[in-house]
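Entry type: protein chain
Record version: 2
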Amino acid sequence: MAQVETMNNEEVEAEQAVVEQVYATGKRKTAVARVWLRRGKGRFSINNMTLEDYFNRETQRMIVKQPMRLTKNLNDYDVIATVKGSGKSAQADAVKHGISKALILFDKENNRPVLKSAGFLTRDARIKERKKYGQRGARARFQFSKR
């Protein structure tokens, strides 16, 4: 007969509190960001570069930090991300999406309602529309000639 171990609530909470690092994936357009979040001092490393070196524009750096600022965790976690595809602005949004999903894995009760109401957990599904045959682009037609 198999022996069944029971765990009380304190042991379950202690086991969940030991989480050292979490992983999440963020997406925007064709950009895919793989984000690892670990407890630290608020350092950012994107594709083995600092946040300031990788994202040249201040608006892109602000977008990446939004979830951390909103949940008041800016100096509590280190962010390591690898991001591919699309352009820099879409990559910033993909990293933001990944950080938001990772923050929930650390503290679901406190972070999820805040991030959900801000709309950071919803993947932005807008992607480029494909070109149609017989046309110059997705919607643009060739110039009409009457004669």
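Comment: Residues 20-118 form a domain with the Ribosomal Protein S5; domain 2 fold (CATH 3.30.230.10).
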